[in-house]
Amino acid sequence: MESEIYASLKSIGAYVPEKIVTNDDLAKIVDTSDEWISKRTGIKERRFAQAGEATSDLATKAAKIALERAKITPEEVDMVIVATISPDYFCMPSTACVVAHNLGIINKPAFDISAACSGFIYLLSLAKSFIVSKACKNVLIIGAEKLSSIIDMQDRSTCVLFGDGAGAAVIGTTSNQEESIIDVNISSNGQYKDFLITPGCGSKNPANEAMLQERMQFIKMKGNETFKLAVKTLTNDVVEILKRNHLDKEDIDYFVPHQANLRIISAVGDSLSFPKEKVALTVQKYGNTSAASIPMAINDLYEEGKIKKGSKLLLDAFGGGLTWGSAILHFN
């Protein structure tokens, strides 16, 4: 009798640009201060890519680490999927196609998804489906962002929040349920599309001089509304996925939320009564890196020796769309 196939997180990798931008650096550009940013967001610094460094470059570097740690070659990768809201090119080619080429992965499917800060959770859901259906044996998933290219440095309410980086993972097969991705939940509600939006350059507001003068090519956010809905949605999503899998918070080794804002992370963690030492926290040094946020946080936990083979992780994200998602998985 053929054994059942499960999807498993085989490796993690991340890359952050070298350039560190502190709150004091931003205070020289816009009317803000380290105290103002720290108090409202918990962010102390973030990384910005160089002018000639594209999202695909960040993604490629993270992917190489993930492939090396998974001990597989580019030839063994069956599919490449990139989650990003800051692709190399507006329409085509996809950033995934560029990354696959950079890695020497040829004649394999490669495509992007756009789910904003929930991107990595969406990637996990897709990869899991391709693995358990036996369509693929190894799926390379990457959350990568060069958000410095789409933030308005004249808007202090948004430019202080975001940073650049990439996180990658190899999702492979296993017959051991104790090594599996246990469950993934993803959802959305377009009713709140204007809470987090890049209004320009698409078919709704095509690129023209008037659109550029109104700076519609940059991220716009309704901060207070987003905060309130994020805390409520993230908390409910975690309660639901734990209940569905007959698990308690005590069964979780690490809670890894999207790193958007320390106040959101703290509010969700407190609502769920997670001990602070079991909550991953990287927002203070990377800012909000959207789809790259969660894999970058997992990578930090791994490199710091806080998680090991078999550790049970609970992931939770909320982003533009609005989209949200959660996942429970074994770190393998």
Q: Round the mean pLDDT to the nearest integer and report it.
A: 94
| Number of structural domains | 2
Q: Mind telling me the CATH superfamily name of the largest domain?
A: Thiolase/Chalcone synthase
Largest sheet: 5 strands, mixed
Name of the CATH architecture of the largest domain: 3-Layer(aba) Sandwich
CATH top level class name of the largest domain: Alpha Beta
Radius of gyration: 19 Å
Extended strand count: 13
The ordered string of helix (H) and strand (E) elements is: EEHHEHEHEHEHEEEHEHEHHHEE
Structural class: alpha/beta
Strand content: 15-25%
Q: Taking strands numbered 1, 2, ... along the chain, how are they ordered across the largest sheet?
A: 1-7-6-4-5
* Helical amount: 25-40%
Subunit structure: Homodimer.
EC number: 2.3.1.180
GO molecular function, one term: beta-ketoacyl-acyl-carrier-protein synthase III activity
GO biological process, one term: fatty acid biosynthetic process
Notable traits:
lipid biosynthesis; 11 helices; globular; transferase; 4-stranded mixed sheet; 5-stranded mixed sheet; 13 strands; 332 residues
Write the layout of secondary structure elements.
Elements: E1 6-15, E2 19-22, H1 23-27, H2 34-41, E3 45-48, H3 55-70, E4 79-83, H4 95-103, E5 110-113, H5 119-132, E6 138-146, H6 156-159, E7 164-174, E8 181-188, E9 196-197, H7 209-213, E10 220-221, H8 223-244, E11 254-257, H9 262-271, H10 283-286, H11 293-303, E12 312-319, E13 323-330
Please characterize this protein's 3D structure:
This protein has helices at residues 23-27, 34-41, 55-70, 95-103, 119-132, 156-159, 209-213, 223-244, 262-271, 283-286, 293-303; strands at residues 6-15, 19-22, 45-48, 79-83, 110-113, 138-146, 164-174, 181-188, 196-197, 220-221, 254-257, 312-319, 323-330. It is an alpha/beta fold and 332 residues long. It folds into two domains: 6-177, Thiolase/Chalcone synthase (Peroxisomal Thiolase, Chain A, domain 1, 3-Layer(aba) Sandwich), CATH 3.40.47; 181-331, 3-Layer(aba) Sandwich (Peroxisomal Thiolase, Chain A, domain 1). The strands form four sheets. It has a five-stranded mixed beta sheet, with helices on both faces. A four-stranded mixed beta sheet has the order 8-13-12-11, with helices on both faces. The chain has a two-stranded antiparallel ribbon with strand order 2-3. Strand 4 (79-83), helix 4 (95-103) and strand 5 (110-113) form a beta-alpha-beta unit. Helix 3 packs across helix 4.
